[in-house]
Specification:
- The protein is of the alpha/beta class.
- The chain is 41% helix and 18% strand.
- The chain contains 14 helices and 15 strands.
- Strand 3, helix 4 and strand 4 form a beta-alpha-beta unit.
- It is globular and about 65 Å long.
- The termini are far apart.
Length: 379
Amino acid sequence: MIEAGDFLEAAKRQGIDFFTGVPCSFLTPLMNAVISDRTARYVGATSEGEAVAIAAGAWCAGRETAVMFQNSGLGNAVNPLTSLNHPFAIPTLVIATWRGEPGVKDEPQHELMGEITPRLLALAGVHGEPFPLAAADIEPVLSRALAHMRSTGQPVGLVQPKGAIAPRPLDEVRAEPAPRVAPVEFGGASLPRRIDVLALLREKLPESAGLIATTGHTGRELFTLQDHAGHLYCVGSMGGASAIGLGAALNSEREIAVLDGDGAALMKLGNMATIGAEAPVRFTHVLLDNGRHLSTGGQATVSAHVDFAAIAAACGYRFAARASGLGEAGAALDAALAVPGPRFLHVRVAAEEVSGLGRPTIAPREVARRFRAHLTGAA
């Protein structure tokens, strides 16, 4: 058994000082230690996949990161681990508990996942290190983990068994919720093309801003308009763009803009609650809603039944607006940028494909590294 404080101090010595995750009873001591430590940063996520994406955004802004969650939620994390961390070569330390460890009595819902946890992590491309069970083992394990992450750009996993960490009390301070805002309406007579709205946003946002485009045609359209070191084109991890943006915005002095889609936003609506609670002031979330999964054949989403701006306002965004015309979208963005974030714009766009649409010609690994250099000023 080890002390949570010893693990945390060793992690910080290795440079890991940004943590995010979802609680588990096995994790309580370590999570309590991280939350109680005023020199580390912890972001509570609504899902394990969201936590992985938040950590990826924080890494893009220059931090070394760790994600913590119960192994029953590992399935939620497999998508970003394999379609975000792997292709973009974004490292993070994954601490997954071992509920249902073979030979250890546990609840029936943990039996299968307990049996396959180490193999599932390995299949997802996460290199494994043994969880340290003695104080003398902590530093060597974390040192090897960091060395592997820095040399490969890939995550490393520690599977934490029951009783591995001694109990630790919680000292948590949470900010009071901000007053709720009323969504602002910017009506328009006709729906613009998404690519035209993207061009307008690129023109109005600061040149130094970081733009994170959701997977599908959005990123391809942004790349077709202009390739830029401040662009991150998500090629997977559907629904994760806003969480990546949150992780980046909490750790960068740059303005961060997320260019989201209705299908992606619906997949991870919980991200909006975390964004509202964390309240990054240099964060703009633009939802480009064509009511379709356009890149996969145009199947309808349920966005017509959802008031996204009202959801953003209810989640604590400091500005929320609806717009349905090109000029109106520009006016909404001007109004948004005049106030601290997080800001939300729901822009209705036409379900119209752009002919001759290109694809990013730069490998995801290089996209991530130049984006990191852009956000940290290391370019």
